[in-house]
Design a protein that fits this description.
24 strands, 4-stranded mixed β-sheet, 2 domains, 29% helix, UDP-n-acetylglucosamine1-carboxyvinyl-transferase, Chain
Length: 426
């Protein structure tokens, strides 16, 4: 099994190109199920999760064709065509690999009038039930059955009539599934307390480009008037704000300066505000965002929250950076439980972190020491890489298949700004 080997202690400086957003790509790909015409997605990241989702689409009868060369200056595109859907069942052996597979439920139901999807798998960062997905679909007229580990949704008259639903808590995935289900309904759907993440804006913009009628994009109140059919489109996936934030933390933890080429400041205000509060200089440039460390890191108090709050997907990376801050930082994880599994590994490297429930206190230390550590989930993996970049000596991060789910060409990008890092076969 591969591992990532790092020799730490080098100040990182230079430019890192930001790839297309993983979380957006996994939401845009199932939109191909909503039309029999071609959907081409540009700026598609080369990631294990994207490949797994494409394989799932193939199993459903969707053809996929990839174009674009490898390398930092060549972006990848994928053309999908669902002119003949062969199956409305997403089986366990495919869905168990990642939770995003549940996002075929809404568009398949909208297009075919029925959809059967295995209950999903994914990172072990806590319980992420799909009940809100199902309640929203029921409010739009779907009939739901749960049996033998599968969800079967059906539209009694072949198409959903549409309806109103107010999410009791903000849910990104449930909002995405509901929007995709609503665009082909026979009537109007209103979603209240909908998630507002930039990735959902990206989804709505793609659907509008395909002929959908959606009002309130970017707000918590979405109004969707169903249309008879959607057409194909050619669309660019948004840049990955979490990848950009992760490399910004690499600049901070190594005392370096990195320009995040292609990053969109408007999508990252909570992240850039936190970076500034930690003492980093953030400049919005013509090409993206430049993040520079000018002195000792300052401690922070951070509480994760739905957008536009501080993203849960950045909590682990900031924890690593704040392990070297002067003073005590306080972190609260409000989205998922069990998202501090990286803490014991950071402690192995010399970090001083106390946790209680969903709260953590990070006592800043003078330095970290390299060690062999084990990744537990995607963002935890990156937090260990960051710690390794700053640590004295050598660090080996095991279970890097987690990293491959969300960071494209990680070693190449970090090497280009001065890191001593390489992938080693196990």
């Amino acid at each position: 099994m591969d591992s990532i080997w790092i020799k730490g202690g080098t100040r990182l400086e230079g430019r890192i190109p930001i790839s297309g957003a993983k979380n957006a790509a996994l939401t845009l790909i199932p939109c191909a199920l909503l039309t029999d015409e071609e959907l081409t997605l540009g700026n598609l990241p080369r990631l294990a999760d994207v490949d797994s989702f494409a394989h799932l689409m193939n199993e459903l009868g969707v053809t996929t064709k990839v174009s674009g060369k490898r390398g930092a200056d060549h972006k990848r595109a994928m053309t999908l065509k669902a002119d003949h859907i062969e199956s409305t069942v997403a089986p366990y052996e495919l869905v168990r690999k990642m939770r995003a597979s549940i996002l075929v439920l809404g568009p398949m139901l909208a297009r075919m009038g029925e959809s059967t999807v295995s209950l999903p798998g994914g990172c072990a960062i806590g319980d992420r039930p799909i009940d809100l997905h199902l309640r929203a679909l029921e409010a739009m007229g779907a009939e739901i059955e749960l049996a033998a580990g599968y969800v079967k949704a059906s539209a009694p008259k072949g198409r959903l009539p549409g309806g109103d639903y107010s999410f009791p808590v903000v849910s990104v995935g449930a909002t995405e599934n509901a929007v995709m289900a609503a665009v082909l309904a026979t009537g109007r759907t209103q979603l209240f307390n909908a998630a507002r993440e930039p990735e959902i804006v990206d989804l709505c913009n793609l659907l509008v480009a395909m002929g959908a009628r959606i009002e309130g994009i970017g707000t918590s109140h979405l109004v969707i008037d169903g249309v008879e059919g959607l057409h194909g489109a050619d669309y660019e996936v948004m840049p990955d704000r979490i990848e950009a934030g992760s490399y910004a933390c690499a600049a901070g933890i190594t005392g370096g300066s990195i320009e995040l080429v292609g990053a969109r400041p408007g999508d990252m205000l909570a992240i850039t505000n936190a970076l500034a509060a930690a003492g980093l200089v953030t400049e919005f440039t013509d090409d993206g965002i430049k993040v520079s460390a000018t002195g000792k890191l300052k401690p922070l108090a951070i509480s994760t929250a739905p957008y536009p709050g501080f993203p849960t997907d950045m909590q682990a990376q900031f924890m690593s950076m704040l392990a070297l801050a002067e003073g005590e930082s306080y972190l609260e994880e409000t989205i998922f439980e069990n998202r501090y599994m990286h803490v014991p590994e950071l402690r192995r490297m010399g970090a001083n972190i106390d946790t209680r429930g969903r709260s953590a206190i990070v006592h800043g230390v003078e330095g970290l020491t390299g060690a062999q550590v084990m990744a537990t989930d995607l963002r935890a993996s990156m937090s260990l890489v960051l710690a390794g970049l700053a640590a004295e000596g050598e660090t080996e991060v095991l279970r890097v298949y987690h990293l491959d789910r969300g960071y494209e060409r990680l070693e190449e990008k970090l090497s280009a700004v001065g890191a001593t890092i390489e992938r080693r076969g196990g």
